[in-house]
Amino acid sequence: MGVLSKLTMRLAHPRRYDNLRRIRALDPEASFDEIASLVARHEFPWDYVQGTSIAFMRDYGVPSISRLLHQTGEFERHGVKRYDDTILIGEEATIDGIDSERGHAAVRRLNRIHGHYDIPDDELAYVLATTIVGPVRWISEYGWRQLDAHELVAITRLTTRFGELMGIQGLPSTYDGYLQLLIDYERAHFAPDPANAALAEASIDIARSGAPRAARPLVRRVTIALMDAPLREALLLPAQPTWFVSLVRRSLRARALLLRFAPPRETAYLHRPVTYPDGHRLSDLGPMSMLAALDRAAG
Fold this sequence. Notes:
The protein is mostly helical. It has 15 helices and no strands. The chain has helices at residues 3-10, 18-24, 32-43, 45-59, 63-72, 74-94, 101-115, 121-142, 149-165, 175-189, 194-210, 216-225, 229-234, 242-259, 288-298. It is globular and about 55 Å long. The N and C termini lie far apart (63 Å).
């Protein structure tokens, strides 16, 4: 830990570590829902969203996944809805606890969406792994503090329970297990493909549309700068200058240091979907092609 980092820890807001103290007093096996919610919605809400967004990008580095998604046309035609739906199903599944009635209903909805396509179990397990590895890696690099061991256990327990409800067998029981699953799968399956690039560009367009107007010209370059080389190459995206990559990453680390002077978040962060400004129902969530098929069946 550098001198500046140690100094900011000493000078941090007096209540900055209140949530961490609360988390350390909980049993991560029994209270994993509460701990995971504190991490994602109070301690690192912005970071968790960014890490999840990078996780989505990792899925596109696998041609068998990207070709299926590209084939549906959902990203190109309804990309913002697809992004909102993914985040909202995750919220619905966890906001009252994964084993609550609401949580089970959300996972049933997700299973119904997946059942609309032919997705092998190894791909489902990989995609699940990205949802934990993406945020943890981001927080490790750019969070205002490192994750505690209690937090890693709780996030892992939640991820595995989510996967069990999806019907995925043989999932890891530790974060390191998910990390190794991801590394091994990407070594075997990452490969350049035009479908990868098409989905990556469509996702960048989604990020660009939600960014402040002045920042939109830089969104694509910043997004690429935050990718590791294997992912960037699989997505057929151009390398950015070393100085630019360094500037982006240093800026994020500076933000992390400044956040130590801020008080802890009082209210839980919840996604504000562009697609549903007046609210949503669980039945609204899903690909447009699936919703159209359900409407036809009902009619």
